[in-house]
Design a protein that fits this description.
- The chain is α/β, with parallel strands linked by helices.
- The chain has 4 domains: 4-125, Rossmann fold (3-Layer(aba) Sandwich); 141-254, Transcription Regulator spoIIAA; 278-373, Transcription Regulator spoIIAA; 380-438, Nucleic acid-binding proteins (OB fold (Dihydrolipoamide Acetyltransferase, E2P), Beta Barrel), CATH 2.40.50.
- It is 36% helix and 23% strand.
- The protein contains 14 helices and 21 strands.
- Strands 2-1-3-4-5-6 form a 6-stranded parallel β-sheet, with helices on both faces.
- Helix 7 packs parallel to helix 8 (213-223), helix 8 packs parallel to helix 9 (241-249) and helix 12 packs parallel to helix 14.
- The chain binds S-adenosylmethionine and iron/sulfur cluster (SF4).
- Iron/sulfur cluster binds at residues 155, 157-159, 162, 164-165, 199-200, 235.
- This is tRNA-2-methylthio-N(6)-dimethylallyladenosine synthase.
- Its main location: cytoplasm.
- GO terms for molecular function: 4 iron, 4 sulfur cluster binding; metal ion binding; tRNA-2-methylthio-N(6)-dimethylallyladenosine(37) synthase activity.
- Catalyzes the methylthiolation of N6-(dimethylallyl)adenosine (i(6)A), leading to the formation of 2-methylthio-N6-(dimethylallyl)adenosine (ms(2)i(6)A) at position 37 in tRNAs that read codons beginning with uridine.
- InterPro entries: Elp3/MiaA/NifB-like_rSAM, Methylthiotransferase, Methylthiotransferase_CS, Methylthiotransferase_N, Methylthiotransferase_N_sf, MiaB_methiolase, rSAM, rSAM_horseshoe.
Amino acid sequence: MSSSFYIHTFGCQMNLADSEIVTSILTDGGFARAGDEASADVVLLNSCAVRENAEERLGNILTQLKGRKRRQRGLVVGVLGCVPQFERERVFSDYPFVDFIVGPDNYRELAGIIENSREQKHLASLDYDQAETYAGIDPVRTGTISAFLPVMRGCNNYCAFCVVPVTRGRERSVGYERVVAEVAALSAAGFREVTLLGQNVNSWRDAKEGLDFAGLLDGVSLAAPGMRIRFTTSHPKDISESLVRVIAARPNLCNHIHLPVQSGSSRMLDLMKRGHTRQEYLDKIAMIRRHIPDAAITTDLIAGFCTETEEEHRETLSLMEAVGYDTAFMFHYSVRPGTWAARNLPDDVPEAVKKRRLQEIIELQTSMSREIYRCEIGQTVEVLAEAESRRSSSQLMGRTKTNRAVVFSRGEFNPGDTLLVKITGATSATLMGVVQCPV
Ligand code: SAM
Ligand code: SF4
C-alpha cells in the first residue's frame, strides 16, 4: 500500500540532517512526501532528548495526534531518534497509540517497519550499530543554498549532564574520501555553504588516511573553493592549534567557532566531566584570537548545574565577559535520566534560582551581543543571502562569515548571491545594511 509521510523534527542540526536521510530512505522505499501533517497517513516524530523542554514539545504533538489517530483509521505514528533510544518503555506506556519506535542507527529498516506496523503493535528497532554512518544514502535536502553534512555520529565524552552518548552510541567518523566527494557534489549542485556536523567534530579521524579534523577541513576547503565551509560542534579540550591555523589560512573556512563552555567555574567543569579547567579554556580562546583576531566565538551555557553556588555562577558571568561571546545558547540544567549526574549528583539548585541565574546570563549576553553588533556599524562585510527576511519580501536575510545575520533591501538580488553589504544599523541579534556590490 503506498503512503505519504510527514516528519516533525525536534532539536539540533544533526536531527535535521537525519530527517533528510529518513526522507531519502522512505522515498526510495516507495513512500511519498506529504506537504503537511494533515495530509499524511504516516506521521513521524524525530525526537530530541537533550533537554527536558524538547521532550515536552514532543509530548504536546503526540497528545494532539492521539485524537487524530482515533478518528483516522490507518494513520501510522512513529517516534524516531533519541527519546525512544533511552526511554523505550515510557514512549509506549505514556502514548500507547504510537505504532513503533526507531533509534538513530536503525533508519534503514523504516520502510519495512512502517509496513509491518499495520499488522503488529509496538514495534521497536533500537540496536546500536557502531558502523552505521548512512553511507550510500543521498539525503533529500530541504534547502538549495546551505546544507548540513554529518561527518561523524555518536559521542565518547560522557559529560555528566548529557544524554547523547546514551542515545546516539559511540563515536564513528565518515571516511575522508566520502566527505570530500559529498562536499564537491554539493558544490557542483549549486550549494553555496555546507556545515560539517558532529557532536564533537574535533575528534573526527580517518585512521586509514592518517588524518584528523584539521586535515579534513584542509581537504574539503580545497575540494570546494567557491563554497563557505562551517563546522559544529567543537569541544574545547580537543580544539587544536593546527585546526585553528587551517581556518586562518583558508578564506572559505568561516571564521566562526562554536566552543561550548557550559560553566566558568573549574569545580563545575570538573563535576560536569568536561576535561578542562576555566584557565585551559581561556588559553584556547587566546590561541584562537592569536591566529584569527576577528573570529566570532559563540558558546553553550548551563545555569544551575548540581551544587552550583552563587560564587560559581558569578564565575560564569565573568568568563562570558572575559571571552566576549558573539552569541550563546543558554539553558538551565535539567536532569536527564541515564546520565552520570542523574545517578550520582543531587539536583539541588532550586528551580527559581536556576531560572534567575539563567536570566542573568541571558541579560549579560544580550548586552554584549548588542555592543559587538554595534561595533560593526560602518564596516563593509561579505554576506551570503539565504532567504527573504521574515518581515518583508522586499528584504533579504543573509549571514556574514562570522555567522552574524544581516538584513538588507533586496534590490535586484536573490538568495544564493554573495554581496558586499555596508552595515548601517544593529540590534543585539541582527545587523542592518545596504548592498554595495556583488562579490
Ligand atoms: N557536543 C557539544 C559539546 O560538547 O559542547 C554539545 C552538544 S549538546 C547536544 C548541546 C547543548 O545542550 C550542550 O552544550 C549543553 O549546553 C546543553 N545541554 C545538554 N544536556 C543538558 C542538560 N541536561 N541540561 C541543560 N542543558 C543541557
Ligand atoms: Fe554531550 Fe559532552 Fe558529547 Fe557534547 S561532548 S554531546 S555535551 S557528552
